[in-house]
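Final report, closing paragraph on structural work. Over the funding period we assembled a curated collection of sequence-structure pairs, and we close with a single example.
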Amino acid sequence: MLYCIDLKTNIIHVLGCPYIPPRNGEKNFLGRFDNLNDALIEAKFKGFLNANGCSHCCSSAHIK
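Its predicted structure, as stored:
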C-alpha cells in the first residue's frame, strides 16, 4: 500500500483516504510498504517522532 503523512498533525494515511490534506505542501509521501508498521518506522526515521495512524484508514496504529 502507499502511505503519506500529514505534515501538520503527523497522521499517517493510506493513499486514497478522504482525510488526507488536499494540498501537496501539507502532506509528504512516505512510500510503498507491505504493512502499516513499516510505514510508521519510515515516518519516525524521517523525523516524524509523533507519527500516529489515521483513525479511519490506519486504525490499528491510531493512538488517542
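Residues 7 and 26 are 5 Å apart (CA to CA). DSSP finds one helix and four strands in the chain. We thank the funder for supporting this effort.
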